[in-house]
Amino acid sequence: MRITFATAPGSESRPNEDFVLASTRAALVLDGAGGPSELGSGCVHGTPWYVENLGTRVMGLLITHPGISLADALSQGISQVTALHTDTCDLQNPGSPSSTVVVLREHEQRLDYLVLSDTVLVLDGPDGIRQLADRRVDEIGPEIRDRMNRFRPGTPEHQAERLKLVTEQRRLRNRLGGHWVAATAPEAAYQALTGSLPIGDVGQAALLSDGAARYVDFELGGWPDLMTVLTKQGPEGLIALVRQAEDADADGTQLPRTKRYDDATALLAVTGQARPIRR
Ligand SMILES: [Zn+2]
Predict the structure, then answer these.
(1) What residue spans define the domains of the chain?
(2) Taking the model in full, what pTM does it have?
(3) Alpha carbon distance 30, 192 (integer Å)
(4) pLDDT, tens digit, 9 for 90 and up, residues 42-63
(5) What spacing in Å lies between the alpha carbon of 199 and ligand 1's midpoint?
(6) Considering the chain, what percentage of its residues have pLDDT values greater than 70?
(7) Residue 189 and which of 79, 154, 156, 202 are 20 to 30 A apart at CA?
(8) CA-based torsion, 112, 218, 139, 36: positive or negative
(9) From ligand 1's centre to the CA of 90, what distance in Å?
């Protein structure tokens, strides 16, 4: 696969909690959630540490065990990262660092994929463009979300409602009837959307954190338009269009959202052999 990607933090004062990693045969995007500092996490390491360690371990397993299922790789990765901080951190804390995950892997003429929570996979195949994400987390606390959206992002009133929403999301994290993310429970990997397609059926695919998928949420275009932007303007071009829309609606009246800017990551994978580069 030929892969290009870009990632950009949503804030100048907070580290990017998205993580992206690619080889010629596999790619993954993680979108970490640390939550508001007011709520605490029980972890001395933080969310960037979590996504870096989980992402590198999952990629390592995919490279050293080429036939491993993506769910097994993710499950083992979660177990390995959990073991890294079980002695130092309170892993029972419902705000322990977590992450959404999307993985694409080429293996034996097939493309395997895994989508956990609201990171997005877009597949451009013979039946057109289809999009996969599990947005159960967005269905939690609709009445809190409605109240939050009446206030401008960054105001004390908006933040108070956001804390209530995150608390409710944490209460239902990795529980049946709730929503599933990578955190400390390896079984969450088996709640992901997974599948496999003949590689010839997919010309290209995109992996996006929800901060980059805002392009569609903001109705700047549909999924086919997003793929066109990625192809013609590249991953940075897509993120720039999202930032423009966020700047144009700084107070969140037209585009209600939990954060004014979000960390954003976009990756484009074009299938087929990489060609030698010639001058
Ligand atoms: Zn920790």
Answers:
(1) 2-270
(2) 0.93
(3) 13
(4) 999 999 999 999 999 999 999 9
(5) 38
(6) 99
(7) 202
(8) positive
(9) 8
